[in-house]
Write a structure and sequence with these properties.
Distance between the termini: 47 Å
Low-confidence stretches: 1-55
Shape: elongated
Helix content: over 70%
Number of strands: 0
Strand content: under 5%
Number of helices: 14
Structural class: mainly alpha
Length: about 280
């Protein structure tokens, strides 16, 4: 289905190729990925016409909802790296306050458990905020879907369709192609009465929690394997710097900047952020 739109554009697909993907007939509209999401309700869906009565509305709306987003995983690379950076900086605000010369093993253990607990708590909070944000975004799309499907004029509906599409697609599509999309949208079952979450959304929230939680361990592992707390702290800081550098390289590569430059900049600004956080009592 339209999950291949971006690939078609990148590889020289024509306007007709793109529109053919977007306004695919109903047997192709409810693509396998959409069907997988609808397993959240315990049913199956091959197309809106074959969905159960309680699912056809959700099925068709998910199609419209996907058109406003870039195809791909729930969390893109930048989002995953950002979650890891957040968890890493959070841990460093704890390990950065350690003074192995004055603190005993019990105090150090308390700080490390505090770092772990803090990232567990924030991973849960961040995951829940992701679900709330997704629900609100889908609610906004639901308003658009109802307007297009309802009694709005053709011109109003075309503006709503074009405004809700990926900006690249909106710029590429002609007036006739937007009108085709509008007509195909109107052929779909009426949108559901309220916004909803899917299994894909829950997996996204779980991924956020996992990334924040797992980013806790690399800087903490040295304190498990090294009996000398001073050595463990130095190794921990070294691991943290390497992770900051690696994250910076990944972001730099995605932004088409010099990865080495962004990597070293991330090390510097990450350390600076940790210092500010500690100074402010974080």
């Amino acid at each position: 289905g339209f999950f291949h739109v971006q690939g078609k554009l990148r590889h020289g697909g024509s306007f007709n190729d793109v529109v053919a993907v977007i306004v695919a007939p109903s047997p192709a509209v409810c693509a396998p990925k959409i069907a997988d999401e609808l397993q959240w309700w315990g049913g199956e869906c091959q197309s809106p016409s074959h969905c159960g009565a309680h699912q056809s509305h959700e099925c068709s709306f998910l199609v419209l909802d996907r058109l406003t987003k870039t195809p791909g995983p729930v969390l893109d690379t930048a989002s995953r790296v950002n979650e890891i950076l957040f968890g890493l900086i959070m841990v460093l605000t704890f390990t950065g306050t350690l003074s192995v010369a004055t603190q005993g093993k019990a105090e150090i253990a308390a700080v490390l458990w505090g770092a772990l607990g803090c990232n567990v708590a924030w991973g849960l909070i961040d995951g829940i905020f992701f679900l709330l944000g997704t629900l609100m975004s889908r609610g906004e799309n639901l308003i658009i879907a109802r307007s297009v499907h309802g009694e709005s004029t053709d011109q109003e509906a075309d503006e709503l369709v074009k405004g809700s599409l990926n900006p690249l697609l909106a710029a590429l599509l002609s007036r006739e192609q937007v009108a085709n999309i509008r007509e195909e949208v109107r052929k779909l079952p009426a949108p559901p009465p309220r916004a909803f979450l899917t299994g894909r959304d829950v997996r996204g929230a779980a991924s956020i929690f996992a990334l924040v939680f797992l980013s806790t361990f690399p800087p903490l592992i040295p304190f498990i394997f090294f009996h000398d707390a001073e050595v463990a702290l130095r190794v921990s800081n070294g691991i943290a710097l390497i992770l900051l550098f690696t994250a910076g390289c990944i972001l730099g590569s995605k932004a088409h900047w010099n990865p080495w430059l962004v990597g070293f900049s991330m090390m510097f600004f990450g350390t600076l952020l940790v210092a500010f956080t500690i100074a402010l009592g974080g």
